[in-house]
Structures are given as structure tokens and as C-alpha cells.
Specification:
CATH class of the largest domain: Alpha Beta
Number of helices: 9
Shape: globular
Number of domains: 2
Helix content: 10-25%
Structural class: alpha+beta
CATH topology of the largest domain: Vanillyl-alcohol Oxidase, Chain A, domain 3
Order of helices and strands: HEEHEEEEHEEHEHEEHEHEHEH
Strand content: 15-25%
Largest sheet: 10 strands, antiparallel
Number of strands: 14
CATH architecture of the largest domain: 3-Layer(aba) Sandwich
Oligomer: single chain
Length: 355
């Protein structure tokens, strides 16, 4: 069910695990050969950041089911941060044109004056050159997804965590860094379990009840340990997951650079920023899994296709908002491609469809 506790702050030998390699070939993906629609976003600084992001995700939770067992056949989309051409940029990849139109409307409703436009022509992903070193990672959870990670509610983030994430992405002009968050709406009963028919036999209420229960501990000297104050508080937090919308999520990080050390440092550093989304009450957080060197070509293909795979990671709307949102002036990272004009300003030269 994800990694282990050691992954919360990187592994013991993290420097050796993040090993960048040269693939001796170029990887280019153009807009014309990319399924779906790539939308570019230029954020307006005066918005509510994560809070607006949660509202937008709530409005995008559109589950589609099919067949007798109500199989989830919902489309998947991705939210992406790029450091490319020495700028920090924001993108959404929509599965088709209808979804792209919906994204444009919902972003406009949630983030006033933020500009969203179709990318038409050019590349749909930063180019990887033959002399580049590649390093990457995927993120998982260290516990079952019923235990929430740190988010903006309750005793959550003091500041937008994107300040640290984007600062860690800043690097040399020749280096490219990508954070890709692929999300797909989960069925509304994702917190209910299945009554023991499958592996997901417990629901959030069962987990919460277990946390509140006294436990017999010890083998040589068995004794009853009362549920701690922390256990009871964790139970309350887990219980709050019931009824919330959730999204199946994949998170990937890629760094490409002619400098081997820079590729390794950026992949490791950005992944490390996400492991700080650790919730001390539920003991839940992201763990980073460096991509083995032999898997880099397949990993690039995943990024290009915006592939969704079942990694048994479901995030609630509030959790996902922390990992996929449009930032505001609270983050002071330079090199962000901000929009400074209010709605009605000029249309960018590379856009024919602007929201």
C-alpha cells in the first residue's frame, strides 16, 4: 500500500537510489500527436490558492460507471508543473475537448482573472535530448488511503506548500523538471469498504472504531493498552473522510539535465518536498520511490501518455488540492509565468482560444 515510514524523509541511501542516466536518444512529444487537449494556465496572483483548488476539484468530480457491477469508467486528467525554458509553468491535460471546455469554465469560475488557453502547436511536454541525464520518482502513501495526509484544513499547512515545491524546481536554464499529478474520480462509496468480499474489507468507520478500541499488547506479559488521545484524535480525522469526494491519483516527478548531479538533485529534492505533506496525527504521508534506471524509457512514456494506473492511492478533494492547485501571491518563487492583467487583457500570441 505504498512505501514505508523510511520514505517519509527519503531513504537511508537516497543519494544512491536517485541515479540519473543518459538514454542517448531524444524524446519529443508534439501537441499534434498527443491524445486529448493540453491547456496552459497563467495564474493571476489574487486568488485563494488551495481553497479555490478544492472548490474546483469538487466541481470536476464526475464519476461515470458502466455495467452490472457499476465499473468506474471515468476519464483521467492531469495537472502539471513544468520548469522549462527557465520558467515555471502550469498545465492541465484534459482527456478530450469536452473535458477541456469544462476545465476552462471551472478554472475561470474558481480563479478569477486566471488565464486558460489551448496549447496549439509546439511541444506537449518538455523535450528530452540525447545528452540529458534523466532521474525520476513516483509517489505513494505509507499507510492505507483512509488515513489522510496533511492538507489545508484543521492544523494543516501554515503556508502554501507550493512555495517549497516550486523553489525546489528552480534550477539551471538547461534543466527541465516536471511534476505530473494524474487524477481520476473515485466512486462515491470509496470509504465504505466491501464487507469482506475483497481485500478492501473495512470502511472508514471500521478503521475509526479500531483506533478508539483498547488493545491487548505484549507477548510475554500480555496487557491491555488503552486507546491514546492521539489514537482517538486520529479516529476523528479518519471518520471525516466519510462522504467526501475522492480521486484515484498518480504522482510522478521527472528531472532532465545535461548535468547528472542536477538531475538527481532536482528529482530527489522535489520528491522530498512532497514527503513533507506528512500528517503527524494519522502518521500518513507520501513516500518517494525513485525510478530504476532500466525503467526510465517506460517512465517517460507514462508521462507522455498521462497514464493512469491503479497504485491504490485515493486522495480526498482537500488532500488532492494540496498537490494540484493554482498558487497565488503567497508563494514568492521567482520565474513563475504570472498573469498581471485582469480579464479583458491581451490574448497571448500562441493562443487562439482564450478563457
Amino acid at each position: 500500500m505504498g512505501g514505508n515510514l523510511m520514505g517519509l524523509f527519503g531513504s537511508d541511501d537516497g543519494a544512491s537510489e536517485y541515479t540519473a542516466v543518459q538514454l542517448d536518444e531524444s524524446y519529443t512529444q508534439t501537441v499534434d500527436e498527443t491524445p486529448g487537449v493540453l491547456l496552459a494556465i497563467r495564474p493571476y496572483k489574487d486568488n485563494q490558492g488551495i481553497v479555490d483548488g478544492a472548490a474546483m476539484l469538487q466541481s470536476l468530480h464526475d464519476v461515470r460507471t458502466k455495467g452490472f457491477r457499476s465499473k468506474n469508467v471515468s476519464q483521467h486528467h492531469s495537472f502539471e508543473l513544468w520548469f522549462d525554458e527557465a520558467k515555471l509553468k502550469f498545465y492541465i491535460h484534459a482527456a478530450d475537448e469536452d473535458a477541456a471546455d469544462k476545465f476552462r469554465r471551472r478554472v475561470a469560475n474558481s480563479y478569477s482573472n486566471t488565464q486558460v488557453f489551448w496549447v496549439e502547436g509546439g511541444n506537449a511536454f518538455p523535450q528530452i535530448r540525447p545528452d540529458d541525464y534523466i532521474a525520476g520518482a513516483e509517489l505513494d502513501l505509507n499507510r492505507h488511503y483512509y488515513y489522510p495526509i496533511r492538507n489545508h484544513q484543521g492544523e494543516g499547512f501554515e503556508r502554501d506548500p507550493y512555495g517549497e515545491v516550486t523553489s525546489e524546481m528552480l534550477t539551471t536554464p538547461e534543466t527541465r523538471v516536471v511534476v505530473q499529478v494524474v487524477f481520476r474520480p473515485a466512486k462515491n462509496d470509496w470509504t465504505e469498504g466491501d464487507g469482506g468480499l475483497l481485500s478492501r474489507d473495512e470502511g472508514v468507520d471500521d478503521v475509526a472504531e479500531g483506533l478508539r478500541s483498547d488493545q491487548v499488547v505484549g507477548w510475554l506479559n500480555p496487557r491491555t493498552r488503552d486507546a491514546s488521545k492521539k489514537d482517538r484524535e486520529a479516529a476523528d480525522i479518519v471518520e471525516m473522510q466519510r462522504g467526501q469526494y475522492g480521486f484515484h491519483t498518480n504522482m510522478r516527478i521527472l528531472a532532465a539535465s545535461p548535468d547528472k548531479y542536477e538531475a538527481e538533485s532536482r528529482a530527489r529534492g522535489v520528491a522530498g518536498m512532497f514527503t513533507r505533506y506528512y500528517n503527524t496525527m494519522t502518521e500518513q504521508g507520501f513516500t518517494d520511490a525513485p525510478v530504476p534506471t532500466s525503467d526510465h524509457p517506460a517512465f517517460i512514456e507514462k508521462l507522455h501518455t498521462r497514464e493512469w494506473e491503479d497504485r491504490e492511492m485515493i486522495l480526498s478533494v482537500n488532500e488532492l488540492a494540496g498537490a494540484a492547485h493554482i498558487p497565488n501571491k503567497e508563494i514568492e518563487t521567482p520565474k513563475i509565468d504570472w498573469r498581471y492583467a485582469q480579464r479583458g487583457g491581451e490574448v497571448p500570441a500562441d493562443s487562439q482560444r482564450e478563457e
